[in-house]
């Protein structure tokens, strides 16, 4: 395909089956979203879970039951086909990786779009703060912690965090920058000693790839969008649909408009 | 004396010789200021030094030559007697500790009022962030660093920092809060490993008192108002007058009004 230049063109390319790859680096000025779709029967509990855990589950938009064209996320949106990869979970187990949801869609499905760290990473890079995993062309390192989520209905578990090593000076600046963006995880939840939040070994992340940490760097930890995915799987619901990790929904929302001040 | 309730009443008590003690804890909602007074011949260089080192030397106000009633700092201000203790330096050496400046005042003296960490400490305590030196009734610990100041004329040297130990969570919150107050030193300049900024031993501060640091705490470092005093002494000017450390000028400026956003 020709390289799409707008989120709408990108989504149209995805919808047409012309793009089925990870979305990192595409439409960089616009927010990419984690997608969670589940039946109305569990939607209220999940909404409450997100409300109670805003660092890990910052909601960009929630659709009505059955609604796949959530205008708050973008023009001519079709959540049934605008994501380049879906995961279908049944009873907590991965049961399918369809490219569209047309056969699965039901009138009681509710879509949740959750902010993604790609948005604040753009702001950090524009501020001249180097990101190790980007430089090393790896996925960001993610870890389970002992920070308990606030439970709601069947959803609970512990927070998952992403880690970026930084010099103290950059860490301070990164706290300032990401504090402006509560809709995409906001400020870090921890920095320094990983053992204090239950992480035994930074060299062995639970998700993503380990990255090198220099002696003059601190590990800085942000709440991660994998947290709700873990909570959802642990809840072992009959049906949950998510995006495939890394294969995000590209929205029309400009990252810069997410700044809280 | 009866306890003064407003900054103006406080200054009047000082001026009347009724208060000659450290000012910590007095008129807590209002900014206390570091005071530097020096002849016009060196004032332009010192102004430039402050402009180039805003973290250490955030200017609340600068008077005109000969002006002791700087209205930007408060009503009915008299910088010749409204500070409970003065230091007079001649050729870089402490040469006197007068209670008033009436005999020293000259038409070419220029007063600089520099923001003080008492202001942001109020904001931290109101946010529920414990301050160890306050709890331990000690002076804050201060250290010389290897962070070079940007020089201007005879003024140079290295940054002096104050250190407050905090849990990571509180350190992150403290960065958010103090970032809002660039007029009183703003965000920290460092946190974590003190060796990275040239501090050999936290137990041996260069000024103030050492405080205990718990295993789950990080040292957090802010640029300190002692920096300009060090630079001034090192410049060995014929005459410089400052407040006596801890004996600050209490201004009419409400701390809350210093928030940049």
From TrEMBL, chains A, B:
It comes from the Bacteria. InterPro entries: D-Glu_cyclase, Putative_hydro-lyase, UPF0317. GO terms for molecular function: lyase activity. Its EC number is 4.2.1.-. Keywords: Lyase. The keyword Translocase does not apply. Pfam families: D-Glu_cyclase (PF07286). Belongs to the D-glutamate cyclase family. This is Putative hydro-lyase SAMN05216552_100535. It comes from Pseudoduganella namucuonensis. The lineage of its organism: Bacteria, Pseudomonadati, Pseudomonadota, Betaproteobacteria, Burkholderiales.
């Amino acid at each position: 395909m020709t390289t799409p230049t707008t989120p709408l063109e990108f989504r149209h390319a995805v919808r047409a089956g012309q793009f089925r790859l990870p979305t990192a680096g595409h439409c960089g000025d616009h927010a990419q979203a984690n997608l969670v779709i589940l039946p109305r029967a569990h939607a209220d509990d999940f909404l409450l879970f997100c409300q109670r855990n805003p660092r890990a589950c910052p909601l960009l938009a929630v659709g009505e039951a059955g609604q796949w064209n959530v205008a708050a996320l973008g023009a001519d949106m079709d959540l049934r086909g605008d994501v380049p990869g879906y995961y279908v979970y049944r009873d907590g187990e991965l049961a399918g990786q369809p490219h569209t949801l047309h056969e699965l869609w039901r009138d009681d499905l509710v879509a949740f779009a959750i902010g993604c760290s790609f948005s604040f990473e753009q702001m950090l890079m524009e501020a001249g703060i180097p990101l190790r995993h980007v430089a090393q062309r790896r996925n960001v390192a993610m870890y389970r912690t002992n920070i308990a989520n606030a439970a709601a209905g069947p959803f609970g578990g512990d927070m998952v965090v992403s880690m970026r090593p930084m010099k103290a000076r950059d860490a301070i600046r990164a706290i300032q920058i990401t504090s402006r963006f509560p809709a995409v995880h906001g400020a870090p939840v921890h920095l320094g000693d990983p053992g204090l939040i239950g992480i035994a070994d930074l060299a062995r992340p639970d998700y993503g790839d380990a990255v090198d940490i220099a002696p003059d760097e601190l590990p800085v930890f942000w709440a991660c969008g994998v947290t709700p995915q873990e909570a959802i799987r642990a809840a072992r619901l009959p049906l949950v649909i998510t995006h495939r990790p890394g294969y995000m929904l590209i929205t029309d929302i400009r990252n810069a408009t997410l700044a809280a001040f």
